[in-house]
Amino acid sequence: MQQRAGGDPAGNLDRAITGIREAADSGARLICLQELFGWYYFCQREDHNFFKLAEPVPGPSTERLCTVARELGVVIVASLFEKRAEGLYHNTAAVIDADGSYLGKYRKMHIPDDPQFYEKFYFTPGDLGFRTWQTAVGKIGVLICWDQWYPEAARLTAMSGAEILCYPTAIGWLPSEKSEYGERQQAAWETIQRSHAVANGVFVCSVNRTGHEVLPDSEPSAPGIEFWGGSFIADPNGRVLARAGQGEEVLVADCDLGAVDVARTHWPFLRDRRIDAYGELTQRFGKGR
User: Fold this and answer.
1) 228/234 Cα distance (integer angstroms)
2) pLDDT confidence of residue 286
3) What is the mean pLDDT of residues 257-269?
């Protein structure tokens, strides 16, 4: 569910719930919200005031979403700014089952630090590992944005049982770079995630933000970020089943989980893995370097 974010957290939650209802009316049974849907993407600058946006998980937002999930009979993946304790915060996704039960949470493992994506200032790396939840619609694994570039994360989540990987996302163009790098950046983003679908025999649902966001009280020259949208759903062969444009959109696709078994049987990557030869993956780089 691809939406713009505004400056009112309560209003953003209301709009997200309106979108959830629209998706459910369109036949969706698993609904994933974009990364940090509750406000503007605040990591564009380092500002201690923004820690006030955080909340416990589970907490007020999950309580309301659990009620909506139970009412509509849908599974919800909701990306939230988690306050774990004073001075300890995470970029977290809550998983809510179709009966309204809170199943658990995933904490973002890979934390970026790039111009206007200053996430290391806000988020402690996740410590819950790569997980899968059995839901009313199947086995769901959740990873968040920067995690999507790491094949190890997708592999370990698939190995924990996932049939569907959900990626709440906030990625966009810096206006000064768009003309030169924009097309290749978006193509790389989509390509890496479709490759995870193929390599692991899973469905991939990537849900991005949309809209040009400039934070309140920014300098007049602040460029903001133009989130490119482009949310998509890919099957275990990497085929895109549905793709959004740059505007707000509720994207729905039929994911036949029987395709997971077919793909893994005919492309038995899990069978042929050389786990005896992968020890160096635990090294930062090559031996002696």
Assistant:
1) 18
2) 81
3) 97
Distance CA(164)–CA(161), nearest Å, equals 9
Instruction: Say which CATH superfamily domain 9-282 falls into.
Output: Carbon-nitrogen hydrolase (3.60.110.10)
Active site residues: 35, 108, 145
Cβ atoms of residues 7 and 39 within 8 Å: yes
What are the residue ranges spanned by the domains of the chain? 9-282
Q: According to the model, what pLDDT value does residue 81 have?
A: 98
In sign, the C-alpha dihedral spanning 24, 28, 32, 34 is: negative
The answer to pTM > 0.85 is yes
What's the pLDDT score for residue 289? 67
- The predicted-structure confidence for 96-135, as pLDDT tens digits, reads as follows 999 999 999 999 999 999 999 999 999 999 999 999 999 9
pLDDT at 90 over 90: yes
